UniProtKB/TrEMBL annotation:
Core subunit of the mitochondrial membrane respiratory chain NADH dehydrogenase (Complex I) that is believed to belong to the minimal assembly required for catalysis. Complex I functions in the transfer of electrons from NADH to the respiratory chain. The immediate electron acceptor for the enzyme is believed to be ubiquinone. Core subunit of the mitochondrial membrane respiratory chain NADH dehydrogenase (Complex I) which catalyzes electron transfer from NADH through the respiratory chain, using ubiquinone as an electron acceptor. Essential for the catalytic activity and assembly of complex I. The chain crosses the membrane at residues 26-46, 53-72, 78-99, 111-130, 162-183, 204-227. Its main location: mitochondrion. It comes from the Eukaryota. This is NADH-ubiquinone oxidoreductase chain 4. Residues 1-172 form the NADH:quinone oxidoreductase/Mrp antiporter transmembrane domain.
Length: 229
């Protein structure tokens, strides 16, 4: 999620300009399918019971935005795609790390059995909150900068796309909050007789994910492709 998807996006950025000017009858169906895929995969996330599957499907939704941005072949679209790829790579990897910390203790990925972990692991709950807010592009995260660039590009290409991108953004916020509430809030399950405390290495890994996301807020041009020395 953090590397392979980004290699595919980077390949599209490099290859499509070499093809010259792609015909509109080829680009249009792909962009429509990508926009529709954002809605479909985001909706699937709302029905997931497996934590790892939910995070994986959310990656597909975000990459749909990246595909539309790259195919638009505009400076704003390419910049937004670059920013969102870097932001999503760090955010998605952090979410998978958090899911693994839960699995190592609960030995299950079922959301219904992971309720109330805020009581047992309060510091890890803070990481869950920050990562979930970043995943839903809460300001001032660079995820928001990338999505705004892409949504502006798509609106300039075709105004009706604001409906699809807007609904996709709304559903993304919904399943991000759903994921946080289902894993952290509520009563702790009685099956957890003994939960091991969190380790320093786990917090270090999460810091190394979220610290770059925080620092890039001050200089997003470093990853937007518009940076000049």
């Amino acid at each position: 999620a953090a590397i392979l998807l980004k290699l595919g996006g980077y390949g599209l950025i490099r290859i499509i300009p070499l093809l010259g000017s792609p015909p509109m009858n080829l680009i249009f169906p792909i962009m429509v399918l990508a926009l529709w895929g954002i809605i479909m995969t985001s909706s699937i996330c709302l029905r997931q019971t497996d934590l790892k599957a939910l995070i994986a499907y959310s990656s597909v939704s975000h990459m749909g935005l990246v595909i539309t941005a790259i195919l638009s072949q505009t400076p704003w679209g390419l910049s937004g795609g670059m920013v969102l790829m870097v932001a999503h790579g760090l955010t998605s990897s952090a979410l998978f790390t958090l899911a693994n910390t839960n699995y190592e203790r609960a030995h299950t990925r079922t959301l219904l059995l992971l309720r109330g972990l805020q009581i047992a692991l309060p510091l890890m709950s803070t990481w869950w909150l920050l990562t979930s807010l970043t995943n839903m592009a809460m300001p001032p995260s660079i995820n928001l900068i990338g999505e705004l660039f892409i949504i502006s590009t798509m609106f300039n290409w075709s105004p009706p796309t604001i409906i699809l991108t807007g609904i996709g953004t709304l559903i993304t916020a919904s399943y991000s909050l759903y994921m946080f509430l289902m894993t952290q809030r509520g009563a702790l399950s009685t099956q957890f007789h003994l939960i091991f405390p969190t380790h320093t290495r786990e917090h270090l890994v999460l810091i190394l994910h979220l610290l770059p996301l925080g620092l890039l807020i001050f200089k997003p041009a470093l990853i937007s492709g518009l940076y000049t020395c």
